[in-house]
Amino acid sequence: MARVDIREVKKKLRAEFKDLRRKMPFEEKNRKDMAILDRVLKLPEYRNAKILLTYVSTDIEVDTKALIEQALLDGKTVAVPRCTPGKIDMKFYIIRSLSDLEPGAFGVLEPPPERCQELKAFEGSVCILPGLGFDIQGYRLGYGKGYYDRFLSKYEGKNIGVCYNICLKSLLPHGRYDKMVDILVTDKFVKRFHGK
């Protein structure tokens, strides 16, 4: 039996998920983003967190800008990642508003380190994870660069994956270093994973 190249399978899935997201009408995406935001805001993990770690969304991702603004209104410390050039590494920096951000690596809005303070202690935080797709076992398919996988290998707080229901699979290919999310939030449901 021929061996399957997991990298090729993941590459095809990434293209499929990106295509599904690009084809989603604006009104539908907005409705789904609002449903996901509503579910995240109701989670005790969010409500009890003093610090929110979150990615800054691009046009095809689950929107996090409204979440960032709400978390700031809720009095939480908000920190977003900045990718370290030339390394598979990212650091989180505290922002006070979305206007603190500027285009960085991969065209993503990032905090400039000369204006924003690096967050060094993650106690009392919850982390919102991006993913092109997730499966119902709690595994995520990222963009393939490994930034979040590396971060999650050391992060001890709760993490929450956010995803559109159309980008869910019953099972995604994953390796031994892939970690399940603690909680998965879609536009249809919230799922918690055992042992988390």
Automatic annotation (TrEMBL):
Substrate binds at V56, E61. One of its GO terms (biological process) is folic acid-containing compound biosynthetic process. GO terms for molecular function: 5-formyltetrahydrofolate cyclo-ligase activity; ATP binding; metal ion binding. The keyword Plastid does not apply. Its cofactor is Mg(2+). Signal peptide: none annotated. It holds the Pfam family 5-FTHF_cyc-lig. PANTHER family: 5-FORMYLTETRAHYDROFOLATE CYCLO-LIGASE (PTHR23407:SF1), ATPASE INHIBITOR/5-FORMYLTETRAHYDROFOLATE CYCLO-LIGASE (PTHR23407). InterPro entries: FTHF_cligase (IPR002698), FTHF_cligase-like_sf (IPR024185), NagB/RpiA_transferase-like (IPR037171). NCBIfam families: MTHFS_bact. It is an enzyme of class 6 (ligase). It comes from Fumia xinanensis. This is 5-formyltetrahydrofolate cyclo-ligase. It catalyses: (6S)-5-formyl-5,6,7,8-tetrahydrofolate + ATP = (6R)-5,10-methenyltetrahydrofolate + ADP + phosphate.
